[in-house]
Amino acid sequence: MSDVAGSAVGAVAPVAVHSVFRPWWPGVASTAVWAVAAAVTGLLPDHGRAPAGQPLVECEVVIAILSALSVLIGQAGWFAPLAYHGRRIAVLGGAVAVWEIVTAKTGWLPLPFFPSPQAVLDVYRVDSGRLAQSVFSSLLILVPGFLLGAVTGFLAGLAMGWSPEARYWGNPVIRLLGPLPPIAWLPVALFVFPTISTASIFLIALATAFPVAVLTASGVTLVDSRLYDVGRTLGASEGFLIRTIVIPATLPHVFVGLFMGLGASFIVLIVAEMLGAKAGLGWYLQWAQGWAAYANLYAALAVMSVLFSGVTMALFAVRRRALRWNRETVEW
Amino acid sequence: MVTASVASATSAGGLAGASVQVRAVSHAFGDAGQALPVLDDVTFDVPAGETVALLGPSGCGKSTLLRLIAGLSAPQAGRIGVDQVRVVGPDPSRLLVFQDPLLLPWRTVEANVAYGLEARKIGDGQERVRQALRMVGLAAFAAAYPHELSGGMAQRAAFARVLVNHPRVLLLDEPFGKLDSLTRMTMQEELLALARRHAFTTILVTHDVEEALLLATRVLVFSPRPARIILDVDNGLPFPRLRDDPAFIARRREILIALGHGEEFAR
Ligand SMILES: Nc1ncnc2c1ncn2[C@@H]1O[C@H](COP(=O)(O)OP(=O)(O)OP(=O)(O)O)[C@@H](O)[C@H]1O
Ligand SMILES: [Mg+2]
């Protein structure tokens, strides 16, 4: 046994000697780029009055050091998920350096509209409480509105797809009111509902319900009718058919509707908050603009993009679970 | 091996076959203005427990006839009965294996097979499902989704989905058409053994003259659309049936001539 192990080591050893250390090149590039970014930020003189760049330099140095470490471990299997983004991280460093040069170092882009990266970074230090509060109150409107719209849209679409009577009454509503941008109802919603939050929730539900209803209804009509024959011969009642055939067959379409509804919901959310609310990310944008606090504006936009992208990814994770059986599941 | 699995599958018991009456059935598709006649005055009886094969050119109306017997639609003229009781709708005692597998893609193979038991709230069906899957050789694929099966495996799963319900009348629409010839032979033997043990009545649509003569006690040959019975062969050959038996060859020739292939193949 030990004999075999020994010979195996002996066979492997020359190969190990032969293959000298191979650096992970994206890590090398990232190290170089972020080091340059740190040098630009820390060593070049500032143009005019710019906030002290110390924290930004620290961030850049940390990223450069981590990149340097990754040169050693970049090939490791467990590092693969992060390694995938290696070249993107390197290019990001270049973008930060250029941004720093055209704002803080030369002033080519005018203040206050184009703050330096340091100024944006400072917002997260100084104003994170208000930003977190805004995210929270936006979610408090987005989530209930979206869920309410998803459920009503799904049920309405199911009814319209299954029952000719429901289709008769539902079609004109969808035809006439569907093309209206949901946000156009804001003035009406504002006096019908007691608060701006409930009005916004209603508008988001509306924005979600329409596409979900339309796609659910068309999904129901696309179900292969021979599957109903199979179900009926095997003894399925109408309710059982709906539960076991109509709904699962329609789900891929429902998720397309949900995806469209989510996009419309983001628009409604931000516009409603900009126009009437006292809290939320839309309100934060409006407030930042009012005070010419453009760094806050960009900081909030970045938060918004991460938030909305996260919500969309969550929807796709649900979809992936629900449609495991579907071989044509598209990733986002 | 085959007979052992069949024996275990049938030990769960079940009702014997029912007789089927098809009386002066005519059917057409489309509006009254431009109707497409499909069945023209078709009459035959199937005694309980017998196997009748239906042969006919493509598009003549064989699948339509099976749908009518299954109760999925009503004939425009004539009547269809099972044990002398008029058929008014689908019923799990009369089950149809469709030309395509038509598995539910969101259910695993096992859950597809269990569908009928679940629909009728027959609890404790797991053992029956397992037996049915073993019988069609899909025990190892119980947890697979339909898109992971080959065409032949999917058709066998569809077979299991029907057999698990112990039907009294089995309507088969070219059930072996998509199988390779070896699997097809195995399935034909399985079907024979099953039909004998369960004594269910079988109406088998097929394109394959030999298959009809191997399995059926009677073979009906249809004309091109609209389908009429143009030949009724009483096929009382003893089992096991041999393809080179002179009586077998004579019947095959007779049927091929009726189907219009007398010149090339019937010799
Ligand atoms: N739902 C329907 N609506 C209109 N026409 C139909 C319908 N179903 C079948 N037909 C027509 O009826 C005729 C018979 O169809 P059927 O499916 O019964 O043929 P078949 O004998 O089973 O053919 P094959 O052997 O090719 O399966 C065909 O001409 C077909 O076009
Ligand atoms: Mg057919």
From TrEMBL, chain A:
This is ABC transporter permease subunit. GO terms for biological process: transmembrane transport. Residues 135-319 form the ABC transmembrane type-1 domain. The lineage of its organism: Bacteria, Pseudomonadati, Pseudomonadota, Alphaproteobacteria, Acetobacterales. It is a multi-pass membrane protein. It is found in: Cell membrane. The keyword Transport applies. It comes from Gluconacetobacter liquefaciens (Acetobacter liquefaciens). The chain crosses the membrane at residues 24-44, 56-78, 135-161, 173-193, 199-223, 244-271, 291-318. PROSITE patterns: ABC_TM1. Its main location: membrane. Keywords: Cell membrane, Membrane, Transmembrane, Transmembrane helix, Transport. GO terms for cellular component: plasma membrane. Belongs to the binding-protein-dependent transport system permease family. InterPro entries: MetI-like, MetI-like_sf. PANTHER family: ABC TRANSPORTER PERMEASE PROTEIN MJ0413-RELATED, ALKANE SULFONATE ABC TRANSPORTER-RELATED, MEMBRANE SUBUNIT. The keyword Ribonucleoprotein does not apply. CDD domains: TM_PBP2.
From TrEMBL, chain B:
It comes from the Bacteria. Residues 20-249 form the ABC transporter domain. InterPro entries: AAA+_ATPase, ABC_transporter-like_ATP-bd, ABC_transporter-like_CS, ABC_transporter_ATP-bind, P-loop_NTPase. Keywords: ATP-binding, Cell membrane, Membrane, Nucleotide-binding, Translocase, Transport. GO terms for molecular function: ATP binding; ATP hydrolysis activity. CDD domains: ABC_NrtD_SsuB_transporters (cd03293). PANTHER family: ALIPHATIC SULFONATES IMPORT ATP-BINDING PROTEIN SSUB, TAURINE IMPORT ATP-BINDING PROTEIN-RELATED. Belongs to the ABC transporter superfamily. This is ABC transporter ATP-binding protein. It comes from Gluconacetobacter liquefaciens (Acetobacter liquefaciens).
